[in-house]
Amino acid sequence: MITAAPASEVDQPLGDAVDPAFVARFAQAHEEAGFDRVLVGYFSNGPEGAVVSSFAAAATRKLGILLAYRPGMIAPSLAARQLATLDQFSGGRLALNVVSGGNDEDLQRDGDYLNHTQRYARTEEYLQALKAIWTAEQPVDFSGDFYRFQGASPAVRCSQRPHIPIYFSGASAAAVQVAAQHADTYMLWGEPLASVAEQVASVRAAAAARGRTPRFSVSFRPIVADTEEAAWKRAAEILEQIRENRTRLGLPLTEHAPENVGSQRLLAAAGQGEVLDSRLWMGVARLTGARWNSTSLVGTPEQVAAALGEYYKLGVSTFLIRGFDPLGDAITYGQGLIPAIHEQVARLAPGNSEDPSQ
């Protein structure tokens, strides 16, 4: 994940919200480290993601861009042209991470007052409209509960066919139904293995009923070091830094009550223990209220890659990883973790001796 200026839970931004030189360096570091794509987040109090994505694409040669995009902010007819244009200028490197929103205060900053059920109904309609325009040969008429337009032009084509890949996240029942209909890749946060297996099975079943077979992605915040002891020492230091920052900023450390189901699931898992499975660390999720991707796999690159391999066996084929020192960790991941992940997946690939299906 890249941001438009240095920032993380342990590095609160103090300068300008947009640092072009940092964005270029950050994107290039991911490309050099061997990342396939980089996530550009959606922030109601930060720089606009499509513009950041355009800049990051121009600063790199082959790095894919996963743009977090919130339905409802821009009319779908305009969004179809905007996103197709970005896909063309990036040379077909764009993917869309559709986020319906899970916090009322955050949504209301941008004037969105729909409730949870309405938001997902709007998202379904929005994606239906986008795909209709992207795949049309003639002008598109559309009439729904949230959007209506006549003669929307499909002249601006996506570079990719049939359209830009759609990634989708959301853990509620409403989200799963939208994902089943539209997601090319369904994204989960880093829950314990049993919980991820449950979610994968649920989405697979819902998608199969519609004749679809989405891929799956899981997000983690890996903490790696040359030794396991050093990795856990760094985890403790990170937790203390976050505690100090939240105390200084007057943010809560306990009694969290997140609105979205994904955060509720992470907090429930954190209630089971500090470390789950072999090395899934819940410390930051518990401290921050799990409002975002906040669980870590802790250990050496080889140990973390082996833990990711267990998720691969469940059908997960994409790992979204970012660190608490975003730029420094991206470089570190390229030196050890990413090669170790490729080696682990190669060992588990169909036909190899460790293939879990054999």
TrEMBL record:
It comes from Phytopseudomonas daroniae. Keywords: Flavoprotein, FMN, Monooxygenase, Oxidoreductase. It comes from the Bacteria. It holds the Pfam family Bac_luciferase. One of its GO terms (biological process) is alkanesulfonate catabolic process. Residues 12-317 form the Luciferase-like domain. This is Alkanesulfonate monooxygenase. Transmembrane segments: none annotated. GO terms for molecular function: alkanesulfonate monooxygenase activity.
